[in-house]
Specification:
- The structure is a single chain.
- The chain is of the alpha/beta class and about 190 residues long.
- It has one domain: Ribokinase (UDP-N-acetylmuramoyl-L-alanine:D-glutamate ligase).
- It is about 55% helix and about 10% strand.
- It has nine helices and six strands, in the order H-E-H-E-H-E-H-H-H-E-E-E-H-H-H.
- The chain has a six-stranded mixed β-sheet, with helices on both faces.
- Helix 3 links the parallel strand 2 and strand 3.
- Helix 3 packs parallel to helix 4, helix 7 crosses helix 8 and helix 8 packs across helix 9.
């Protein structure tokens, strides 16, 4: 069933809600056999960190600092102490496009100057926010075949939506608030 669904898909996103069971590992293995645009987040990143590093040009990895630390086999404070260097190490080890999420989200890819998103707010440090970003990146990538451009736009509109939602206060900001505001930010 997964294989037939992927054959119809322009982009595949994997990770949010995946878990780390044997089934999740098998699903990830099936997805990794597919060639074509792939967005990888959450537990898919954790499972990849347990494997021999693989390099792919066609994937977009979206780790938060803890996931990035697991991918590089270091401590989270090392990731945070030099986010740009950590981003560079992730790109070097895994290739593709990498989004290092957090305060001052950065986007990198081989041969590109890293991009910094200056938008977003502390209220976005809540459950599900990365899942919304994963979907946003996948949606943009389905519309724009350039992973570098699609990813940067997705990061920007996600942060803009978070900022718009936080105008009434950062406390209690939910991922659904950001998801609901994406349409307005994309259509500015």
């Amino acid at each position: 069933m997964l294989q037939s669904a992927m054959e119809r898909a322009d982009v595949v996103a994997i990770g949010p809600g995946l878990g780390r069971s044997a089934w999740a590992q098998a699903a990830l293995e099936t997805v990794l056999q597919r060639r074509g645009p792939l967005v990888v987040d959450a537990d898919a990143l954790n499972l990849i960190a347990e494997r021999t590093p693989e390099r792919r040009e066609d994937w977009i990895l979206t780790p938060h600092p803890g996931e990035a630390a697991r991918l590089l086999a270091v401590q989270t404070n090392e990731i945070q102490s030099d986010r740009l260097a950590s981003l560079g190490r992730l790109v070097e080890r895994y290739d593709g496009t990498v989004v290092l999420k957090g305060a001052g989200t950065v986007v990198g890819a081989a041969g590109r100057t890293s991009a910094l998103c200056e938008r977003g707010n502390p209220g976005m440090a809540s459950a599900g926010m990365g899942d919304v970003l994963t979907g946003t990146v996948a949606g943009m990538l389905a519309q724009c075949p350039d992973p570098w451009l699609a990813t940067r736009v997705a990061v920007l509109v996600h942060a803009m939506s978070g900022d718009a939602a936080a105008r009434s206060g950062e406390r209690g900001l939910l991922a659904g608030d950001v998801a609901r505001g994406l349409r307005n930010c994309v259509n500015l």
